[in-house]
Amino acid sequence: MRILNATLFFAATTLAAQEPPRPAQAPRAPRPAEPAAMPALPALPVDAPTPLPAPAPVVAVEPLDGLRIVAPRIGQTLGPLDAIYLDGQGQGRVIAPRPLTEEARELARLQAELAREQSRMESETAREMACLESQMAREQARINTDEIREMARVQSQMALEQARIATTVGGSFYYTPSGSMLPSTMPRAWAQGDPADSLYRAAMDVMNKGDYRKAATLLKEIPVKFQYSQYAAEAMYWQAHALYRVGGTPDLQEALQTLETLKSKYPNSRLRNSQADVGALQVRIAGVLNTRGRGGDDIVKRALAENSNICDREEAQIRSAALNALMQTDPAAATDYAQKMLAKKDDCSRELRRNAVFLIGNRPGPSSVATLISVAKTDPSVDVRTSAINYLGRMQSDDALAAIEELLKSSDDQQIQREAVRALANNANPRARAGIKALVERNDVSEALRTTALDALNPERATQEDVAWLQGLYTKMESPRLRSRIISAMARIGGTQNEKWFTTLANNENESIEVRLEALRRAGTTMDIAALGRLYDQTGQRQLRMELVRQLGSRKETESIDKLGEIVKSGTDPEVRSRAMTALINKKDERATKLVMSLLDRP
């Protein structure tokens, strides 16, 4: 600011020096001793062709201490057309506009025009840059949309699968083939009068805190000191469990011996944990000992032979978790391992095979298609087969589509058939769409399967041809269930043409009440209020009128209040009138409230 003011002062002084000398001024009147306010200064004579405007009022008058420039008033700065005048006595100063020379005015004009042009260019440049950045962002988003969507889908599936594994592995239970659950925490004490009650409670406390060595020691005392206690057999099971958690080879051998003794000493005991859980724990312990080179021990061989029908679920689930973790770091190695896992056919590896299908299904290619086709046709588990069919439906492959069609025709398993139908419906190939339509039209196919096909139709791929097909199909169907599914499929597709069709159905008295209600529910959200009112007046069905009142109550248009008020005032069905009254009150609208209040004022 100081530099700007000094520059302006220099310019004003230079301009003043270029003008002819001024004539002497008349002597000023003497100043009052203590004036209340400074009087206005007289105009200064100037040799100029045009008279000067009246000078601005004096802002400050003070003895000059050198030559200084001070703003004329607080918040005001000198402009390019301001000139500086000193009074004749050299005692003060006044700031006032004065005319400039032609050259100075031209310079000021050019400077102002240059500033405007620079501002315009900067503004246009900023707009162009913003437009370019916006276009680049949109293009980048368009390029990445498909990749992001696919990545999100895969990550979501993997998260769900990992959550399922974490639930079974890291939670409180893991599952045995019989469906029983092997708990990881001891059950609460249940026999307060039992002599071993306090000892069992102490063991339970340290066991549940994870002090397995101490828990095993306390639990070992119960069957020794109180062999007829209600806690004796339970204590032996949990002693073996605690030793297994400690995990040393001698501990595992002692745990197996404890479980053998439990079976022989208490063969008919009613454990809080079933005998199947005892066998599952034996298999788990024997499996670990086998990996440590103790598979030749008699006790290990007996444990495995006696429980050959029991799967080591914990090991299978740990391996599933490992496979998912490997997929995060080395997808190629995980896929190779998954291929090997699918060669297994035993029940114990079922969950592992499902994980393998998930991994292969998310790496599309000819090799993956061939593997999934083989699994879909030959795997002994229906769950694994349906998972493979699901992923085949996502493959853009003629071989995959042909395999699904073959399974649909050849399989007698309803679960396999339903999954094949869903896979066809989700496939983008027009041939798959045609296959779904042909299946729905077949009278020799079960109604359940045709219903599944209608429910699986993807509205995102629907065309006007599909809409026309569904409308024509409706007239051919006699089953109310299939007709209802057609209406649902049409509603998912939406559109003006479908809304008109729904209105026609709702008005058709030859249709069943179920169909008309279904059509009204679909069309009522968008149907014109006047049309809803006419339909109410025309129908004599209480169910339809109740539905129409519900639709009117949910609409925001003010005309709906008028129709509801009309029903409340002049309706003849008390139940419908009561429903209309409730709809008016729930609108929480001033007009609706007045209509309700007017009923109270009626004579």
Concise summary:
The protein has 26 helices and four strands. With 603 residues, it is mostly helical.
SSE blueprint and pairings:
Elements: H1 2-18, E1 82-86, E2 93-97, H2 102-169, E3 173-175, E4 181-183, H3 197-208, H4 212-225, H5 232-246, H6 249-265, H7 275-294, H8 298-306, H9 313-329, H10 331-341, H11 350-361, H12 366-378, H13 382-392, H14 398-410, H15 414-426, H16 430-441, H17 447-456, H18 464-476, H19 480-493, H20 496-507, H21 513-523, H22 529-538, H23 542-554, H24 558-570, H25 574-587, H26 590-600
Antiparallel strand pairs: 1-2, 3-4
Helix pairs in contact: 2-9, 3-4, 4-5, 5-6, 6-7, 7-8, 9-10, 9-11, 10-11, 11-13, 12-13, 12-14, 13-15, 14-15, 15-16, 15-17, 16-17, 17-19, 18-19, 19-21, 20-21, 21-23, 22-23, 23-25, 24-25, 24-26, 25-26
Description of the structure:
It is a single chain. The longest helix has 68 residues, at 102-169. The strands form 2 sheets. This protein has a two-stranded antiparallel sheet. It is extended and about 100 Å long. The protein has helices at residues 2-18, 102-169, 197-208, 212-225, 232-246, 249-265, 275-294, 298-306, 313-329, 331-341, 350-361, 366-378, 382-392, 398-410, 414-426, 430-441, 447-456, 464-476, 480-493, 496-507, 513-523, 529-538, 542-554, 558-570, 574-587, 590-600; strands spanning 82-86, 93-97, 173-175, 181-183. Among the domains are: 1-24 and 39-100, no CATH class; 181-310, Serine Threonine Protein Phosphatase 5, Tetratricopeptide repeat. Mean pLDDT is 75; it is low at 1-27, 29-98, 142-155 and 158-181. It is mostly helical.
